[in-house]
Design goal:
- By secondary structure, the protein is α+β, with helices and mostly antiparallel strands.
- Helices cover 35% and strands 14% of the residues.
- The N and C termini lie far apart (149 Å).
Length: 269
Amino acid sequence: QESDGGGGGLGFGGMRKRRGGNPSREVTLCPHGFIAGACARCADEFAGCSSGCGAGRFCCGGPGAPRMEGPDPLAATPAESNRRARLSCLFLLLMIAPAIGAAVLLLQEQVAPAVLLVDPRDAASVKHVFFGGGSWLVHCTNQQTAGARTKQLTKAAELLRPEGVRVAEVPCWVPLPTRKGPRTLAQRFKFRDHPPVAMFVQEGQKPQFLDTSDAMLSGPSLAGQILRLRAGRSASARPRVTSRGSRQGGSGRREHVGRRPAEEADDEH
């Protein structure tokens, strides 16, 4: 008997079909049109699975799915989880550390550049460099020389930054407003009216001029001159020990050592 529609039969309620007119080659098809016993959809229906995963009785939702009791033997231990978390944090830090370092350097360059380039009309910055405190290596420029030695000045700034000395390029021959009328820095501090001129300004004191010969205009040479000037000033500011056991500072004030002033006054009477 040959049938092409649904009906009762074998297997999963399928139908018989004769192939080639040979009764020995009859096969049973399921309601879905597949050979009975080989249809995944029938296996899901038999197992009670509605997900259509085709796993039959081993479906995650089927009654024949394997059940595991107790902890998962393949699960990571707390120590392994902590180790993985630390490695992940370290890897993330290694990935973002260069970007953070570059951002910090960029911010530092914006806030406190290695070489401060003073605008010719920026009288406030000129006043800050010469009279606002701090130590500065000042390189004077005009329109022709502005920016010509920035590379050498940057090298000097790298050497002087740990010593608390900053570097500035200042237009020394541009008149600026003062109480006595417009004057250039060359007129105010009485130095020549053309470059090269470099000076050391410390804590708003009178500038000390540097050697600006060709051999001394490199970054390390300028930095070395500054450091020698600072060392000489520090040595001259040290208190001198007198034969009476007292120290006398650069300002003339006497500081007594060893005995109190009252005891020394008694000895003088």
